[in-house]
Design brief:
- Helices cover 4% and strands 42% of the residues.
- With 137 residues, the chain is mainly beta.
- The chain has a domain of 91 residues: Immunoglobulin-like (Sandwich).
- The strands form 2 sheets. Strands 1, 4, 5, 8 and 9 form a 5-stranded mixed beta sheet that branches. Strands 3-2-6-7 form a 4-stranded antiparallel beta sheet, with no helix packed on it.
- It starts with 11 loop residues before the first helix and ends with a strand.
């Protein structure tokens, strides 16, 4: 081999041991350019999904964030698709069932970070369901 313009730095010691002459060809280095991608703006949205792990019922659940439906009719042992909502510092999450006139889970004042992904696990028996909110990323 006569010439390699930019060998991988990890290979330089091995090349020198093999008798290959390595030298700097350009004292000024290389000019690089960085062009940020401005097509996709940063988002302040949050993705939420509901996993229905409640036993003892065949009823579907509905997840609402700030009174907007994110997932509806999520049957037991099923995960909903992610739904996007605007992030804020005092979000309210409500989970309702067709069998109840009041939410079976309600949490207000949640501070959720933008560009994050959350999963709400509804677990337990239908007589005493519990909600567990976890940040996925």
């Amino acid at each position: 081999m006569d010439w390699i313009e930019q060998p991988v730095p990890d290979l330089l010691p091995m090349m020198r041991r093999a008798g290959v002459v390595t030298e700097r060809l350009d004292d000024w280095g290389f000019i690089s350019q960085l062009r940020p991608n401005h097509v996709t703006a940063p988002t302040s949205n949050v993705k939420l999904r509901l996993i229905n792990g409640i036993t003892g019922t065949a009823s579907g659940l509905t997840l609402e964030a700030d009174f907007n439906a994110v997932a509806s009719n999520v049957l037991p042992a099923v995960a909903s698709a992610y739904g996007a909502v605007a992030a804020n510092t005092s979000m309210e999450l409500d989970v309702t069932s067709a069998l109840s006139s009041t939410p079976i889970y309600s949490r207000s004042g949640l501070s959720v970070a933008g560009s994050s992904i959350y999963t709400l696990f509804m677990v337990g028996d239908s007589s005493a369901p519990q909600g567990l909110l976890r940040r996925d990323r």
